[in-house]
Specification:
elongated, 76 residues, 3 helices
């Protein structure tokens, strides 16, 4: 379990997985830094401040977005 990923090395290929794990963790943490405040903020707004009309339309939009797989959204 090394820290170098160089499968096409000239002398000896190295297949360390540590860099792959760390990059996955960093991408996950970055996505959480964006998604958690938006999600909690939207939920708090809908629960406390939004009028019934706004709440109705925003909830419908959220339900539609929840039905689309995240891979499809990422591809677009």
């Amino acid at each position: 379990m090394g820290d170098v990923w160089n499968p096409s090395g000239y002398t000896e290929p190295k297949f360390g997985i540590l860099s792959l794990l760390m990059s996955s963790i960093m991408v996950t943490a970055g996505a959480m830094l964006i998604a958690i405040p938006i999600g909690v903020g939207t939920a708090a707004y809908l629960a406390e401040f939004a009028s019934r009309k706004v709440e109705k339309y925003v909830k419908q939009a959220i339900d539609i977005l929840a039905g689309i797989p995240s891979v499809t959204i990422g591809f677009l």
